[in-house]
């Protein structure tokens, strides 16, 4: 089946990541069908060849959400699923990462043909137009992911062969917040917490402060067909 004939459901596809994946799929001639979290996946995904699952980063019960989507996809006869996870999902110090780790387990045991993508922190989450202030160590190591490149990888695995049963950790570049800021001609500093955004965010920033979120770039380079 050529890409022009493929219809792909995207539960959670109305957010920033979903819009990027939809654009990448359209660029390959595929028909992307975004679904809201409240949509009946069984009905909306009927006739789709595959699905790309995007849960909110801080969903209070992501395994239940993903499990419901998988039930709907099976009922709709969709045999192929790609799950948008996160780099280093099994981190007990970060509850929302653990939710994605448990969801990965559901995907692997779903009976569907699956692929899992584990992107690093988005480059687009940093505003480099002026001094950068973040609630964690600006010298902590990260594998940063470019949203457009993650979307192109998603389109690649959704429309091409050879990716079933694969788990891909994805970063576009490695570095620190301080390095990115310096490259943009500005400064970066760590601000004291708590962040005021809740316990899960504070746990995440505390982990970043101590460990960063490293991820390698070779897998993404290979999937996009470019030299490392």
Automatic annotation (TrEMBL):
InterPro entries: Ergot_Alk_Oxidoreductase, NAD(P)-bd_dom, NAD(P)-bd_dom_sf. SUPFAM superfamilies: NAD(P)-binding Rossmann-fold domains. Gene3D superfamilies: NAD(P)-binding Rossmann-like Domain (3.40.50.720), UDP-galactose 4-epimerase, domain 1 (3.90.25.10). Residues 38-159 form the NAD(P)-binding domain. Pfam families: NAD_binding_10. Transmembrane segments: none annotated. This is NAD(P)-binding domain-containing protein. It comes from Pseudonocardia kongjuensis.
């Amino acid at each position: 089946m050529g890409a022009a004939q493929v219809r792909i459901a995207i539960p959670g596809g109305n957010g920033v990541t979903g819009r990027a994946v939809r654009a990448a799929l359209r660029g390959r001639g595929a028909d992307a069908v975004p679904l809201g979290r409240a949509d009946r996946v069984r009905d909306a995904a009927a006739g789709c060849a595959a699905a790309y699952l995007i849960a909110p980063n801080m969903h209070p019960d992501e395994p239940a959400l993903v499990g419901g989507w998988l039930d709907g996809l099976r009922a709709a006869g969709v045999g192929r699923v790609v799950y948008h996870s996160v780099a280093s999902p099994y981190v007990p110090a970060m509850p929302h990462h653990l939710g994605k780790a448990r969801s990965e387990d559901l995907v692997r045991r779903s009976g569907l043909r699956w692929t899992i993508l584990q992107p690093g922190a988005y480059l687009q989450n940093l505003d480099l137009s002026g001094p950068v202030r973040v609630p964690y160590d600006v010298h902590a190591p990260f594998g940063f992911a470019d949203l457009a490149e993650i979307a192109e990888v998603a389109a690649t695995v959704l429309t091409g062969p050879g990716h079933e049963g694969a788990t891909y950790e994805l970063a576009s570049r490695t570095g620190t917040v301080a390095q990115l800021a310096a490259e943009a001609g500005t400064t970066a500093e760590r601000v004291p917490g708590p962040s005021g955004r809740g316990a899960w965010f504070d746990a995440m920033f505390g982990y970043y402060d101590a460990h960063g979120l490293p991820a390698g770039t070779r897998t993404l380079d290979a999937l996009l067909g470019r030299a490392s």
